[in-house]
Amino acid sequence: MTEVFVNMGQISSFKTQGILTTVGLGSxxxxxMYDAVAKVGVMGHIFLPKSRAKDSSAPPGKYADTxxxxxxxxxxxxxxxxSRLQAKMAGGANLFPNLSANSxxxxxxxxxxxxxxxxxxxxxxxxxxxxxxxxxKMRFFVDSGIVTVTAIGKEAVEI
Amino acid sequence: xxxxxxxxxxxxxxxxxxxxxxxxxxxxxxxxxxxxEEAVSLYQELKxxxxxxxxxxxxxxxxxxxxxxxxxDPQAKIIVCSAMGQKPMVIEALSAxxxxxxxxxxxxxRVVESLRKIGS
Amino acid sequence: MNEVKLDFLKELANIGTGHATTALSQMLSGRLFQLVVPxxxxxxxxxxxxxxxxxxxxxxxxxxxxxxxxxxxxxFLLPLDSALVxxxxxxxxxxxxxxxxxRSALQELGNIMITSYLNALSKxxxxxxxxxxxxxxxDMAGAVWESVLAGAQVTNEVTVIRTEFFADGESIExxxxxxxxxxxxxxxxxxLGLEDV
Lengths: 159, 120, 197
Hints:
The structure holds three protein chains of three kinds.
Chain A: E1 3-5, E2 11-15, E3 19-25, E4 29-35, E5 40-46, H1 64-77, E6 86-91, H2 106-120, E7 124-130, E8 136-141, E9 146-150, E10 157-158
Helix pairs in contact in A: 1-2
Chain B: E1 4-8, H1 12-24, E2 28-33, H2 36-46, E3 50-53, H3 62-72, E4 78-82, H4 87-96, E5 100-103, H5 108-119
Parallel strand pairs in B: 1-2, 1-3, 3-4, 4-5
Chain C: H1 3-27, E1 33-44, H2 48-51, E2 58-68, E3 72-79, H3 80-91, H4 100-125, E4 129-131, E5 135-140, H5 141-151, E6 157-167, E7 170-180, H6 182-191
Antiparallel strand pairs in C: 1-6, 2-3, 2-4, 2-5, 3-7, 6-7
Helix pairs in contact in C: 1-4
């Protein structure tokens, strides 16, 4: 089965089968959307909550506000129905807590932004492994819809 | 009686390194502070002969701690031990009342030299 | 990629890492020491994680906020095996584990490397560049890297200075990442006599 790596700011998808993987989720959020009936799966790796004017040439997947709609579009293009899409999230960790002691960490801001945009589009979040202080690896098996999350020194968990 | 020293640094590793050097050279480390706030309260409690002070620390930085300690004891003997060797910082520390400024990493001899000079 | 800008960065890299290396060699007093000329690169955002050694490789990352006349961030990243070599040389620990003391030693090491680098720049420009208390993370390179980039709100290009040290016959790799806020990068360049950078 083909495995595709989704790097920071990218969005990738498969229909019927394939593995979508993103490694090294720190403060970023790995988001998956799945239409279990059409067997269409999309994965995004979101870097920051809001797109910025000075980064106008950025791929839409870099920011939560442009990334979530872009992921929905990609899913629909492959034959998914928006109403059937369900999401899972991993990441949003805070690896350097002392550096954001007086404010909300980027990880937390990302969690809130992604959750907010998914809610706005009526997409239910049916699994998540977020926050904490460690990095994560996320794998999405499109044939079954299974998503696993691994951290160093820990067993893979299904979310 | 051996002169007493209070060590202040936010990393356990540096406190351990300094302690080794200082004790090996005949001084008595009577306390260790992990931040400026702790340094000030330990100074009042232990009344050490000398203090080593880091600059970049959480809760209260070294410059503020120097000022606070000097308020309590204008005769306090404080030696700064910091990686931050930029001129404005050195000037600020010395104006606040520090007697010497050692830039990390320093060799053992330099530390001892400073303790001997300031301690007498 | 601007040729002039890159040359300028290489110059900064040479000066800064020269000081940082002197500092490092002093910390490991008595060891044979050698510096390989540092390689400065301006990497597009997306390539950065791979450059530091591949997303899944475990690295030690030390991250600071810089304030004063120049504002921004700096990080020092090294692969775990390089960190373990340094720990063995610094505290005689060859357990291969990162306990509290080891973490503390790495924090101090990163602090000294980063601050030495800033001290060198400060001397050249007369600008104050004060680092914060460092944060330390031991985790997958991708995770550490993106946390650094997000924390620094990086837009596009990242300056990475790869250095290699040799101590006691062992090779140690380290990456210094310098992330001044946009306007401040220009401030430094102008003060060092570079227009149009």
